[in-house]
Amino acid sequence: MSPVFHGVLVFLQTWWAELVSGVVIVAVVPLIAGYVVLVERKLMADMQARLGPMRVGPHGLLQPIADAVKLLIKEDIIPDNADQVIFWLAPVISMTAALTAMGAIAFGPAFQVARDINVGLLFVVGVSSLGLFGIVLGGWASNSHYSIIGAIRSTAQLVSYETAAGLALISGVLLAGTLSIRGIVGAQQNNGVWFVFLAPVAFFIYVVASIAETNRAPFDLPEAESELVAGYMTEYSGFRWALYFLGEYANMIVVASVATTLFLGGWLRPFPNVHWLNVLDVIPPLLVALVGAYCIYRAGKQPVRVQSQFMWAVALACFAVAAILAAPLFPGPLRIFLPGIHGAFWFLLKVAAYIYLFMWLRFTLPRYRFDQLMHLGWYILIPLAIVNVFAVGIAMVLESEYHWNRWVALLITGICTLAAAAFLTHLHDKRVEAASTASAATTDSYAG
Amino acid sequence: MLDSILFYFFASVAIASGALMVTRRNAIHSAVFLITALLATAGIFLQLRAEFLFIAQIILYVGGIMVLFVFVIMLVRLDVALQHIRFSMQKWVSAVVVLVLAVQVGTMLWATRVLPGQGLFVREAAPAARLEPNSELLAKSLFENYLLPFEIASVLLLVAMVGAVVMAKKQRDPE
Question: N or C: at which end does chain B have fewer Cβ atoms within 10 angstroms?
């Protein structure tokens, strides 16, 4: 056996799990992103009293695949005056950054690509923020005014809100005492409570900042279609455009996973340490089986025979997943898979809920103006996040050094934080009022 | 084996993109190559099991280039800048610098020759499992051994930041 072959074999033996899960991420995330888009369209349709995609597959279930095929065979246009290489490279950077960040996320105690590095959380946050390079470079390389305005807006927005998000994460990390993803979830298990209940203000700041970071409504100014056509991706078409989109949705999954890990207890089920609540373990298989039953109910109502057959297939798939989730519940050799499989279920459920919240906000709130966005970031969120870091730190010192009850300490410091928030908004309101009266005084065109 | 392959990969990427960064005329291209150089250096940090330095390099240095991009886009008129060479060819100065550097590296390599069969002295790498997590180590040395220098540096940075804000405000005041 040649040494090179032997070396490759040793390499594969040590790293096969990482390689396989890396390939799985690259293969599965586009599919998931496609279905997130479908859910978003269906949900938007529902909130606007329409049906949404209905033609491709029953209830539009095959729409993402049709869309992907369409985007693949669409003409790929590169503007003549664009910077060819960078134009080509930019969407790839956007997508690669998001997918790489996903490598360090633990989707359950058993599913993580990278071995648990002790700066896991920083890695996810830092690498996913590199995706901005894709946006800036793409906007610049397109050689178009709309694109460059979108790119600059995106930079300003991300640089501002990353500060707030980072400070919010620090509050959570203070409570956990570690940056390792497994360590953070373990700390929540030891505490017996999710950090969202210990640091609700930090969670709120992170939610707002993560919406801004993923360029989603109401903060989607870099691609505001009523002002900038499509912002930084105006000149992109076909599959390059799809890569941008993929990067954006992968990024949504990343920020949702970070929030889930740090604030929502990661893969822990509700009340992980209360043993008489072990009945909660029935929820995952039951939930999936219910979805399957609903599919069967809808199958009878499909107008075309193929569609009802497809519905049956979906129902069977749901039942198969439910069986996998139920199998470890019974005593036997499969029991050891319980934490892994159920952990992944709870994690994905929380991520899905977070993304649902994003969509919900998108359809509910109108878009911000750019100066309002900047004011919210710099005048309110960043000072509030700093105050909150202090508050959480003081509460922890009160608990460990002066033996206060933790909840009392956190309640008192939390009330102080909210008072600071009220003061900041009051200051901001006054500032806005002063500015509007000043501008009314100078530009009153009806003054005669 | 794998370690040396990875090291030579990262090192060659870092050197090549460093050279390209200096020679490109287009400022944006230079910035892109600066990013690859910094990322390759971060890769070497990771290989040395300095995870915290690796991620600090990515967040602080690579993230900082974001702002550089904006400066280039806002302040440099690329179509004009591309027409002429923007740096002066200081042939003699650069020749002297290169010579001094070459002598330095050369003497170092020459010195290692005297240790027969050993070359440069390389310490045995500690196994990863026995290493303390280095974000904790870094925090300990910063907040215990080097607390005063750390605080002085942070005050200096704060002063610089406040100063910049004050100067920017002053210019806007007259209107």
Answer: C
